[in-house]
Automatic annotation (TrEMBL):
<dbReference type="InterPro" id="IPR025098">
    <property type="entry name" value="DUF4013"/>
</dbReference>
<keyword id="KW-0472">Membrane</keyword>
<keyword id="KW-1133">Transmembrane helix</keyword>
<protein>
    <recommendedName>
        <fullName>DUF4013 domain-containing protein</fullName>
    </recommendedName>
</protein>
<feature type="transmembrane region" description="Helical">
    <location>
        <begin position="121"/>
        <end position="141"/>
    </location>
</feature>
<feature type="transmembrane region" description="Helical">
    <location>
        <begin position="224"/>
        <end position="248"/>
    </location>
</feature>
<feature type="transmembrane region" description="Helical">
    <location>
        <begin position="171"/>
        <end position="204"/>
    </location>
</feature>
<keyword id="KW-0812">Transmembrane</keyword>
<dbReference type="Pfam" id="PF13197">
    <property type="entry name" value="DUF4013"/>
</dbReference>
<feature type="transmembrane region" description="Helical">
    <location>
        <begin position="47"/>
        <end position="71"/>
    </location>
</feature>
<feature type="transmembrane region" description="Helical">
    <location>
        <begin position="92"/>
        <end position="115"/>
    </location>
</feature>
Amino acid sequence: MDQMNYQPQAPAPPAAPPPASQPVYAKGCLSAAWEDIKTTPGYVGKLVVLGLIMCVPILNFVVAGYLLHWAREVPFGGRTPMPPKYVTGKNFEYGFYAFVIGLVVGIVVSVAGMILGFIPLLGALVSLALSLAGAVAASLMQMRMIMGYTIGDGFAVKDLWAVAQRNWGQLLLVTLVPGVVVGFIVAVVSMVVLLFAMLLAMGAAMPMAVSASAASDPSFGEVMGLLGVIAGPTLFAALIVYVLACFAEALASTLTMRGLGHWVARYAPEWTTLVAPVPPTYPTTPAGPQNPGVPQ
């Protein structure tokens, strides 16, 4: 009787597969970038050259293009040293595109900061958070731009947002830490240099000021001489600070861009398909750069 009333049970649904875990890398993106820099023969001299180019307005666009092109090889498996050529047409062109992206992001962040800056108590914090978010967004947009070799690829906001969520920690580390650390060091050194220059100028100007004050009617030459004594060391110190800031920016940008290359290789490998590879017109070797899709 029990056998006649037996009803077969439906099979249990298959268990859902466990979520895919991200692979564990031996080094972070920033550490890998620093290793790439150090393996370049004469890397200190190359960073110095980049810093000198950074000092020249307009021409310094080539620094961003140079670093973006070097970072672009990483998602394709390239691990070549820093290229020997700095000032090229392609470096200037894509460095200009990077400047445009940074300018657009800067305008949006500035407008939003002005609007939200009126919030009591939180206005300053919101503006700071927007500035940091803008720095992260601009760097990632520039990296996507160089991967696709069109400025429009840098403004694919939906894809950028989806990709950024794959590993926020490494992305923030690569895009913010080099600039913040180097900027803090430069700020401290700059304050010391400017303070020393002002003290030196005041010490040199004090006897002239006393002499001029003793005279009932100081001459025009005495006044200009006093201003020259004060302005000379101050302007020289300001020039030192500017050059130091350019060298620091070159170092921070090198770490950030190369680190972003490693980040894209790990968390956005599909960006390598944004542009079709260009057939090589020269013999390639295993040690040669793996950077397909470079426009001719």
